[in-house]
Protein backbone atom coordinates (compact mmCIF):
# COMPACT_ATOMS: atom_id res chain seq x y z
CA UNK A 1 0.00 0.00 0.00
CA UNK A 2 1.56 3.25 -1.16
CA UNK A 3 0.15 5.44 1.63
CA UNK A 4 0.44 3.03 4.58
CA UNK A 5 2.93 4.35 7.13
CA UNK A 6 3.82 0.83 8.31
CA UNK A 7 4.45 -0.33 4.73
CA UNK A 8 6.76 2.68 4.33
CA UNK A 9 8.59 1.69 7.54
CA UNK A 10 9.08 -1.86 6.22
CA UNK A 11 10.50 -0.46 2.95
CA UNK A 12 12.88 1.84 4.87
CA UNK A 13 11.19 4.98 3.52
CA UNK A 14 10.44 6.11 7.08
CA UNK A 15 13.00 5.49 9.84
CA UNK A 16 12.22 3.20 12.75
CA UNK A 17 13.94 1.57 15.70
CA UNK A 18 13.90 -2.00 14.41
CA UNK A 19 13.84 -4.75 17.02
CA UNK A 20 13.28 -7.83 14.84
CA UNK A 21 12.83 -8.87 11.24
CA UNK A 22 12.34 -12.12 9.36
CA UNK A 23 10.84 -13.01 5.97
CA UNK A 24 7.22 -12.37 7.10
CA UNK A 25 7.46 -10.05 10.12
CA UNK A 26 8.90 -6.68 11.07
CA UNK A 27 8.96 -5.36 14.66
CA UNK A 28 9.91 -1.91 15.89
CA UNK A 29 9.54 0.41 18.85
CA UNK A 30 6.37 2.49 19.07
CA UNK A 31 7.28 6.19 18.92
CA UNK A 32 4.27 6.99 21.14
CA UNK A 33 4.90 4.35 23.81
CA UNK A 34 2.52 3.52 26.61
CA UNK A 35 5.56 2.16 28.47
CA UNK A 36 9.28 2.01 27.71
CA UNK A 37 9.84 -0.98 25.44
CA UNK A 38 6.39 -0.76 23.77
CA UNK A 39 6.98 -2.71 20.56
CA UNK A 40 4.84 -3.19 17.45
CA UNK A 41 4.93 -6.47 15.54
CA UNK A 42 3.54 -6.29 11.99
CA UNK A 43 3.28 -8.52 8.93
CA UNK A 44 5.40 -7.45 5.98
CA UNK A 45 2.48 -8.17 3.64
CA UNK A 46 -0.13 -5.45 4.06
CA UNK A 47 -3.35 -6.46 5.79
CA UNK A 48 -5.60 -3.80 7.25
CA UNK A 49 -6.84 -5.85 10.20
CA UNK A 50 -7.35 -9.34 11.60
CA UNK A 51 -10.03 -10.20 9.04
CA UNK A 52 -7.62 -9.52 6.15
CA UNK A 53 -4.69 -11.52 7.56
CA UNK A 54 -3.64 -14.80 5.99
CA UNK A 55 -3.35 -17.66 8.45
CA UNK A 56 0.39 -17.92 7.75
CA UNK A 57 1.06 -14.24 8.38
CA UNK A 58 -1.06 -14.29 11.53
CA UNK A 59 0.86 -17.28 12.87
CA UNK A 60 4.18 -15.61 11.99
CA UNK A 61 3.24 -12.42 13.87
CA UNK A 62 2.16 -14.39 16.95
CA UNK A 63 5.29 -16.58 16.97
CA UNK A 64 7.51 -13.52 16.58
CA UNK A 65 5.46 -11.79 19.29
CA UNK A 66 6.23 -14.61 21.71
CA UNK A 67 9.95 -14.43 20.94
CA UNK A 68 10.04 -10.64 21.25
CA UNK A 69 7.89 -10.75 24.40
CA UNK A 70 10.44 -13.06 26.04
CA UNK A 71 13.22 -10.64 25.03
CA UNK A 72 11.26 -7.71 26.50
CA UNK A 73 10.79 -9.65 29.75
CA UNK A 74 14.52 -10.39 29.93
CA UNK A 75 15.85 -7.01 28.78
CA UNK A 76 13.54 -4.85 30.90
CA UNK A 77 12.96 -7.18 33.86
CA UNK A 78 9.25 -6.99 33.04
CA UNK A 79 6.77 -8.72 35.32
CA UNK A 80 4.45 -9.19 32.33
CA UNK A 81 3.80 -8.19 28.75
CA UNK A 82 0.38 -7.03 27.57
CA UNK A 83 -0.41 -8.19 24.03
CA UNK A 84 -2.93 -5.78 22.54
CA UNK A 85 -4.40 -5.86 19.04
CA UNK A 86 -7.22 -3.60 17.83
CA UNK A 87 -9.35 -4.14 14.70
CA UNK A 88 -11.21 -1.35 12.96
CA UNK A 89 -11.92 2.26 13.78
CA UNK A 90 -14.63 1.17 16.24
CA UNK A 91 -11.89 -0.47 18.34
CA UNK A 92 -9.69 2.65 18.04
CA UNK A 93 -7.34 1.19 15.42
CA UNK A 94 -5.46 4.22 14.10
CA UNK A 95 -3.02 2.75 11.56
CA UNK A 96 -4.91 0.47 9.20
CA UNK A 97 -2.16 -2.16 8.96
CA UNK A 98 -2.49 -5.14 11.30
CA UNK A 99 -0.22 -4.73 14.30
CA UNK A 100 0.31 -6.41 17.63
CA UNK A 101 1.31 -4.17 20.53
CA UNK A 102 3.70 -5.72 23.06
CA UNK A 103 3.57 -3.51 26.14
CA UNK A 104 5.94 -4.31 29.02
CA UNK A 105 4.40 -4.28 32.46
CA UNK A 106 6.86 -3.19 35.11
CA UNK A 107 6.68 -3.43 38.90
CA UNK A 108 4.97 -0.30 40.23
CA UNK A 109 3.98 0.91 36.75
CA UNK A 110 0.64 2.60 36.06
CA UNK A 111 -2.37 0.39 35.34
CA UNK A 112 -3.13 -0.43 31.74
CA UNK A 113 -6.78 0.66 31.36
CA UNK A 114 -7.75 -2.03 28.83
CA UNK A 115 -6.53 -4.75 31.21
CA UNK A 116 -8.02 -3.28 34.37
CA UNK A 117 -11.81 -3.40 34.51
CA UNK A 118 -14.39 -4.07 37.19
CA UNK A 119 -15.68 -7.64 37.19
CA UNK A 120 -19.47 -7.70 37.21
CA UNK A 121 -21.60 -10.81 36.81
CA UNK A 122 -23.32 -10.90 33.45
CA UNK A 123 -26.82 -11.98 32.49
CA UNK A 124 -26.29 -15.71 31.83
CA UNK A 125 -29.25 -15.99 29.44
CA UNK A 126 -27.94 -13.07 27.40
CA UNK A 127 -24.40 -14.47 27.41
CA UNK A 128 -25.75 -17.83 26.20
CA UNK A 129 -27.79 -16.18 23.43
CA UNK A 130 -24.79 -14.18 22.19
CA UNK A 131 -22.56 -17.29 22.27
CA UNK A 132 -25.14 -19.13 20.16
CA UNK A 133 -25.27 -16.27 17.62
CA UNK A 134 -21.47 -16.26 17.30
CA UNK A 135 -21.34 -20.06 17.02
CA UNK A 136 -24.01 -19.96 14.33
CA UNK A 137 -22.06 -17.31 12.37
CA UNK A 138 -19.02 -19.63 12.33
CA UNK A 139 -20.96 -21.80 9.89
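^ C-alpha coordinates above, recovered residues below v
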Amino acid sequence: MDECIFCKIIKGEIPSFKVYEDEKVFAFEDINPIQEGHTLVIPKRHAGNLWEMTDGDLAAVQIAGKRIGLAIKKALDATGVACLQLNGRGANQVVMHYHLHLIPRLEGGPPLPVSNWELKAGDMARIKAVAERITSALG
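The chain has one domain: 5-138.
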